[in-house]
Amino acid sequence: MCVRLAFGSMRGVVVAEGQASSPAVAGSRAQPDEAGWSDSSARAVLQLMVESVAEMIGFEIAALSVVLGDQLVTVAYTGPEEFRDYLEQPDPVGVLDPVMAQAESWGRFRFLAAEDYDGDDLEGHWVFFDEERPDEPDAWHPHDALVALLTDDEGRLVGAMSVDRPVAGRRPDAAQRRLLERYAAQAERAVITAFEREELVRQVADAETARQLIRSASMPAQASLEAVLQHTHRPLVEGFRATGSWIQVFDPDGEGRGYVRAHDGEPVTLSERMVDLAHHFAPRLWAEQRVFVITEDCESDVPEGARPLLAQARRQLADLGLSTALGIPLGVATECLGFLVLVRRAQDPAWTPGEVGSALQIGHDLGAALMTARALERERNLVRELQQLADYRTQLIATLSHELRTPLTVISGNLEMLGELDLEHPATHHREAMTRGTTRMAKVVDDLLLLARVSDPGHPLERTTVDLRLVAEDVLALVDSSATAKQLTLRVELGDEPLLVPGDPAELDRLVANLVSNAVKYTGGGGTVVVAADRRGADVVLQVGDDGMGISEEDQIGLFSPFFRTTNPEALSQPGTGLGLSIVATIVERHHGRVEVSSRVGEGTTFTVTLPAA
Asked: CA 449 from chain center: how many Å?
């Protein structure tokens, strides 16, 4: 019996006496799911490489192993098939140590001559052979070993490649050594590239898992921040196999909100010192874009001022029956929004590098979810305040309008009585001026009351079936005299079929009247006003157009706002309250329709109202 070194994965294989008659490079060949090496294309490249080494340089056997954790796993092998059955289990990287301590350096390769070591000094499993060394000075001895150490750019071992049984039966000369070094360099780069690809795949998978965790806890747009915190707990503890979770949210006003739950969802009480720890650590961790693992003996990379807080945290963990915690800052861009802590018990496994690596992605994704929830919460508060303000404005307008209507009625009645008296010419002139002013004020009050009524959420819309064609015809009959006085052409395109819409008859009448009267008012003498309506699918479309003075793009922005007045001096010369189009827009909205305007200064304006058909 004689010892034969085997370096496939730096693991030897014990072969019973008489079972092997030729030397072999033994190793460990783990399946991808066992070894964590999932890149089949990388395996194919490495397999081709060891076959090329064996064929081009002249060796019967070659093997390449990679370092996975603290083990060597054979991923490529060429040689006698009978040895593959012994290559199923990985070996610890430490089996290299006694060999490398005695081997001669040939660049990346290490050569260990049979005469330079005692086989009894080697640990691990090796292949035994019954072979005699040829009687030549440079002959390859059955106990010789030749293995290359493959390292990354930082000098860390990433793999090993070994060759055995030179076809010529001799130890490599200088030319073969140069070839071997070149192949070893290529193998080293191939292994590093494969690891980088594998790590990239793993990072992508972890990032996707993180996003899925957050997406699985996503809430509807109307969800509150508290609801997001509640629904995030379950996927976090299940996805990270944690015993519990704690999310501390930092509010802009300086007050924070914490959500602490055990695995089963039961609330847990934390001390104020733990909250101080979150406020102390989270911003620093977010700025450095890293997470922090707290264990029973963790002392590294802890600021001096934070040690008392960390000691308190450990005591709190111990009181809760926990041994380790993973602290994750939550944020968006440069803003730290909170702190997430996932905890485990002593009997639970330690946090893996993959979990720690994906944790920061969770910090980004959950930070984005918290930012959105917080923004929505602020928006809901703002909407609530605006709604309260709108309600107050509506009530104020209605109240003032009612209060104004009574004295206006009294004034108007007295002016009518004065009209029946035989007054001198100057007095008659003043009475007529007061009558015009009173009429205009009454118009403003009526418009305010109507705007308040249609804007009031507490005033529901009572729908009946209304024929918009008949409404338009009634309005046209009322404005006909005004159009004739200005010598306008009224072009009517309403068709003969009913145009039925569900809605309030009085409001729809006011909608059409405001649009048509505006078109007549702002169109110069001799112009044209077009009123058209037709059924288009599930809608009824009303268009009121003119070739009048038009509206500038700047004025179109605030056109439907209450009390809006144009910047066009020509338009300002026409009397108006600035409420007509605001009333139109509000009525259209109440009827679940839409209103659009198309206009160019000097060319005219077209308003298009689309309402759901009955």
From this structure: 47
Residue type, 466: V
Q: How far apart are CA 157 and CA 175, in angstroms?
A: 26
Q: How far is CA 89 from CA 27, 147, 163, 417, 427, in A?
A: 8, 20, 20, 114, 117
Per-residue DSSP letter, 29: B
Q: What is the dihedral of CA 147, 149, 150, 151, to 10 degrees?
A: 180
Q: What is the residue type of 45?
A: V
Q: Cβ distance 324 to 344 under 8 Å?
A: yes
> pLDDT tens for residues 553-589?
888 888 888 877 777 777 666 766 678 888 899 899 9
Query: Which residue, 455, 483, 507, sits at the end of a domain?
Result: 455
In sequence order, which residues have a C-beta less than 8 Å from that of residue 55 and are 6 or more positions away? none
Burial class of 600 by CB neighbour count within 10 A (0 to 12, 13 to 18, 19+): exposed
120 and 190 inside one domain: yes
The answer to whether residues 148 and 106 belong to one domain is yes
Same structural domain, 510 and 468: yes
pLDDT of residue 329: 93
In the prediction, which pLDDT does 2 show?
A: 29
User: Which pLDDT score, from 0 to 100, does residue 596 have?
Assistant: 94
Give me the pLDDT at residue 235, please: 80
Q: Indicate whether 33 and 179 sit together in one domain.
A: yes
Please state, in angstroms and rounded to a whole number, the distance separating the CA atoms of residues 256 and 262: 20
**Amino acid identity, residue 323?**
S
State whether residue 145 is helix, strand or coil: strand
356 and 387 part of one domain: no
- Give me the pLDDT at residue 7, please: 39
pLDDT cut 90: percent of the chain above it: 22
Give me the pLDDT at residue 3, please. 30
Low-confidence ranges of the chain (pLDDT < 50): 1-36, 125-128, 221-222, 300
Measured CA to CA, the distance from residue 321 to residue 36 in angstroms comes to 33
State the residue for tokens 């806890």.
Answer: 217
| Number of structural domains the chain divides into | 4
Token digits of residue 487: 């010598």
pLDDT score, position 180 = 92
The C-alpha atoms of residue 468 and residue 542 are separated, in whole angstroms, by 8
Helices (H), 420-504: 425-455, 468-485
Flag whether 211 is in a domain: no
Let me know whether 223 and 188 are in one domain.
no
CA distances from 203 to 336, 341, 364 (A): 23, 21, 14
pLDDT computed for residue 85 by the predictor:
64
Q: Is 532 inside a domain boundary? A: yes
Among all chains, which residue has been given the structure tokens 């969802």? Answer: 265
CATH code of 571's domain: 3.30.565.10
Q: Tell me what pLDDT residue 269 has.
A: 82
Whether 100 is in a domain gets the answer: yes
Structural domain including 228 reads 216-379
Indicate whether 321 and 285 sit together in one domain. Answer: yes
Percent helix, strand and coil across the chain, each to the nearest 5: 45, 20, 30
pLDDT at 21: 29
Instruction: Look up the CATH number of the domain holding residue 422.
Output: 1.10.287.130
Question: Which residue, of 169, 199, 229, is where some domain finishes?
Answer: 199
In a shared domain, residues 373 and 399? no
Which positions ≥6 away from 95 have C-beta within 8 Å?
10, 11, 12, 72, 123, 124
| 49 within some domain | yes
pLDDT of residue 223: 60
